[in-house]
User: Fold this.
Amino acid sequence: MRLWILLRRARGFIICGLAAWYCSPVECGRGGMVKCAHGTFPVPAPATADLLRGVPTYSAHVQKELATPTGAALLRALEPTFGPQPAMKVEQIGYGAGTRNFDSFPNVLRLSVGEAADGGDAAQTVTVIETALDDSLAAGAGACDRSGTGEGALDVMLTAVIMKEGPVRERCLSSAVPTSATGRRWST
Assistant:
């Protein structure tokens, strides 16, 4: 591929100014051989295999090279999240067709551009902070509730628990968006 074509594509991706990129696993082709400068190699070619290191790939369909070094380099540069397409409101769709025609599937690349279906807000992790209130008075439990909600906890729950050797004490559970570790038990 000519360098100016690659640079034009890269410029187009930059101009888009998209906040996130998503990509399905990459199909490399089901075996076959490819001629390189240093001889004939199995698919994927050495440069492609190296560029796709750590990227989810699979082999199916035909015994041809389906992932090229150029495509793998673009994926590496874009640093997409790999997996299924997230929920989104698609606004634009573009297709790029390859020069090979296969009987069993189309040789096209589809790019869908849109907004996240939830308005762009990312999912938020909520953390549960848990502590046992041993040897405390009921006033201490109330203070736990007031201080938790006063410090931004989403919810605070107090439950009676039976400690070892039988005394009844309280356990305080607080749910919050994590900000720092404080020596309490955290679970998400």
Residues 180-188 have pLDDT under 50 and may be disordered. The chain has four helices and twelve strands.
